Fold:
Amino acid sequence: MITAIADVLRHNGGLATTAQLLTVITRQQLDVQVANGGLVRVWHGVYARGEPDLVRKLAALDIVTGRETVA
Structure:
């Protein structure tokens, strides 16, 4: 995995939006990472490294909706 991607994920609790990732890699590099399994699309526009657990999926949903979805 590209070090810059790992830094973004680490800084954001293991999740990153497309916009965050595109500040450090190109769209083509993002597509390659997804195709090769280096990144997993959790929800539209939110990625993680590896298959996320339920807690991470819910955290990603918070990012997508822009609000806390689970109390």
